[in-house]
User: Fold Probable nicotinate-nucleotide adenylyltransferase from Immundisolibacter cernigliae.
Amino acid sequence: MRPVGILGGTFDPVHVGHLRAAIEIRDALDLAQVRLVPAHVPPHRPQPAASAAQRLAMLRLAVRGVAGLTVDDRELERAGPSYTVDTLTGLRAQLGRRPLCLLVGEDAFVGLTTWHRWQELFELAHLVVMQRPPVAAPIQELPPALARAVAGRWADSAQALAASPAGLVWRQALPPLDISATRVRAALRAGRSVRFLVTDSCLRYIRRHHLYTD
Ligand SMILES: Nc1ncnc2c1ncn2[C@@H]1O[C@H](COP(=O)(O)OP(=O)(O)OP(=O)(O)O)[C@@H](O)[C@H]1O
Ligand SMILES: O=C(O)c1ccc[n+]([C@@H]2O[C@H](COP(=O)([O-])O)[C@@H](O)[C@H]2O)c1
Assistant:
């Protein structure tokens, strides 16, 4: 069964780094779809500048007409911190034994042991670790608890992810795009152009709602 990919984020705002990463991984892993999941209350960072409804609206505009990319708003339905373990538990209940791939940036992966009930994530999904610029050397040393958790889980090939529902780890190189939402917000605040860093549809939304200007 073709796996479903999950790309969680704050998406404040969604930018082409997110969109290209989702498309590259959709194609590299032959995913049935990639669901972009905006966090309602991101667990590990200050509250976003845009509201959850605005971040969701921008995501919907950004994926419109893009094959295989969808927006999943389940975290916006939950109060309290948006823990990934809860999101994956809900998805698993819906998708049965279909393989699930949780896409995480390499920076996030290294900090995985700080996530809520992090060891359960491996029971619920495969982890796909995405390279993110500035491209560092492949992770040599993981925190010991994470190294123990992933030992024996590295997949031999991308195809292996389609053969089981969860439990493997795969490292996916991406053509690097050095774009972050922080950079997009900073450019908007400074009155600089963000054209081609975000979709034109998102840019129109940002302007109409006067986002990221103060
Ligand atoms: N340019 C990019 N290339 C690859 N992955 C990315 C890129 N930008 C973000 N990601 C990944 O997408 C996920 C969601 O990212 P997030 O919404 O936090 O965006 P961000 O650009 O990192 O935001 P901020 O600058 O506000 O921290 C994370 O796993 C992150 O590593
Ligand atoms: O579940 C957790 O404890 C947890 C801790 C940190 C981050 N996450 C998720 O990781 C994704 C990326 O987070 P962020 O803060 O980089 O946008 C997003 O979906 C978060 O909900 C999840």
Observations:
- The longest strand covers residues 4-9.
- The CA atoms of residues 163 and 191 lie 49 Å apart.
- The chain has one domain: 4-178.
- The domain at 4-178 is CATH 3.40.50.620 (Rossmann fold).
